[in-house]
Hints:
Elements: E1 4-6, H1 7-11, H2 30-33, E2 35-38, H3 39-48, E3 60-64, E4 67-74, H4 80-96, H5 102-108, E5 109-115, E6 155-159, H6 161-171
Parallel strand pairs: 4-5, 5-6
Antiparallel strand pairs: 1-2, 2-3, 3-4
Amino acid sequence: MSFRKSLAELSATKSKLEEDKKYCIRPTSSAGMVQALDFDAVKEHWRDGKFVFKGKSADALIVDGSEYYLIEFKTGRIVADDLLRKVYDSAMALVEYNVLTWDQCKQHLTFVLVGTEVETRLSHLRKKSVADYTNPSYSGVNQDPRTVVGQVVKGFEIYTPAEFEAFAEEKKW
């Protein structure tokens, strides 16, 4: 089983018919051709193997030197509490898999949200108290997903697909 896929593949909506798929990142763009780790597939593999991980996860993981980028692609509405859960659970998976420690997540892990909708800017997100989460580690995190910076991850970036393509090119991925 290969865990590597192009960012375009990882950004596609989950449809069995190719003509029904929508891509957040154009397959023909240089960013679309970048190979990344299919983080959802890795999570599923470890669920069947050594670890039992039932959390949510980002779509992709890119390792660039000592920096780690978890990438989430959205082609529709974004819900703040789902996003918070993905940030935290993805970081937790990296810790459980012994890839990073919590301190390393805070120093070297950036969560990147790439969305096709203007609403991606997070202004419309419904607020939900993180006290609703059962995991006590959420207690210090506020509703806005960007508040995880410094508490769970080093950075939280938000891009439109075009902005992300420029970002990936700047990174020389």
